[in-house]
Specification:
By secondary structure, the protein is α/β, with parallel strands linked by helices. The chain contains eight helices and eleven strands. It has a single domain, classed as 3-Layer(aba) Sandwich (Rossmann fold). 37% of the residues lie in helices and 25% in strands. It starts with 7 loop residues before the first strand and ends with a helix.
Length: 283
């Protein structure tokens, strides 16, 4: 996968990094309270790991069958990794970031399907809140509510989400028209609101209608964000999620998703994360 090889590897899965106390001792001497940056697929990270390699070098730690890339990007200490696809994979990855790397905050980037009628391919959605649309323990608990937590919606960190939204707006102001012309999309708009997650790739008009009926304020659907938000909530770690709309989650979604992921996703991620990290590094 892109950007994985070429760094110094410091531990193997099943080795000492599987002990969080040992992990902290080995990692935190390099970076104090880094930012955790995740995506599900390598294309969604763009050139972030290459930028890290050029700026500070990359130390790659293998933990729980994942590669965690430790270094600095635009002056910000970061741990960058792939969460892989789905809620369990995402929850496991962010838990490791919190326990083994003591991250101060978590940012998840990637693509999503558009659900809100005003959301179009090429738009960007920054989450205000996240919810698992496939969680239903009724009649014991209300639909969508996480049992024993008494919550269905997990708020993104307001300051972190605002910083991401500002980075998105700067990207559109700087490159929006050129990117739209290059990729044949309309000029992007930034939306703030509810992102929903589930362990399924929504790819039918009927599926979108069902989501709209159940959750009228949902803007985008994906497969990881709400799980990350729940874990971060339980451990008191700020998190934010930004998604570029690759498809409209309907019958054309599979082809649209693959094309967007291959041709466009990395460009958007690079542009947004670069602006976000530069602003954060200047604080």
């Amino acid at each position: 996968m892109s950007g994985v090889d070429g760094g110094e590897r410091t531990a193997q899965a099943g080795g000492p990094l599987d002990d969080p106390q040992v992990a902290n001792a080995q990692v935190t001497h390099v970076t104090q309270r880094p930012l955790g940056v995740l995506a599900a697929l390598p294309q969604e990270l763009g050139d972030l790991i290459e930028a890290m390699r050029a700026e500070s070098g990359v130390r790659t730690v293998i933990h729980g069958r994942r590669d965690y890339h430790v270094g600095t990007v635009h002056g910000v200490p970061c741990v960058v990794t792939l969460a892989r696809v789905g809620k369990v994979a995402a929850a496991a990855t962010v838990s490791a970031l919190i326990h083994a790397f003591d991250v101060e905050a978590v940012v998840f980037t990637g693509v999503a399907g558009g659900v809100g009628e005003q959301v179009r391919v090429g738009d960007i959605v920054v989450a205000n809140a996240l919810l698992q649309h496939d969680l239903d323990a009724s009649p014991l608990f209300p639909r969508f509510e996480v049992p024993l937590l008494g919550m269905s919606r997990f708020a993104a960190d307001a300051a972190l989400a605002a910083q991401l939204a500002q980075a998105c707006e700067r990207f559109i102001a700087d490159e929006g028209a050129a990117s739209a012309a290059r990729f044949g999309t309309r000029e992007a708009r930034v939306h703030r609101g509810l992102i929903i997650s589930g362990d399924q790739f929504v790819a039918s008009a009927a599926g979108v209608r069902a989501l709209r009926d159940a959750l009228p304020d949902a803007l985008a659907v994906e497969m990881e964000g709400a799980a990350i938000a729940q874990v971060c909530h339980e451990y008191g770690v700020p998190c934010a999620v930004v998604r570029t709309i690759s498809d409209t989650a309907d019958d054309h979604a599979p082809a649209s998703f693959v094309s967007f992921l291959t041709e466009i996703a990395g460009t958007y991620s690079n542009a947004i994360l670069t602006r976000f990290l530069k602003a954060r590094g200047e604080r």
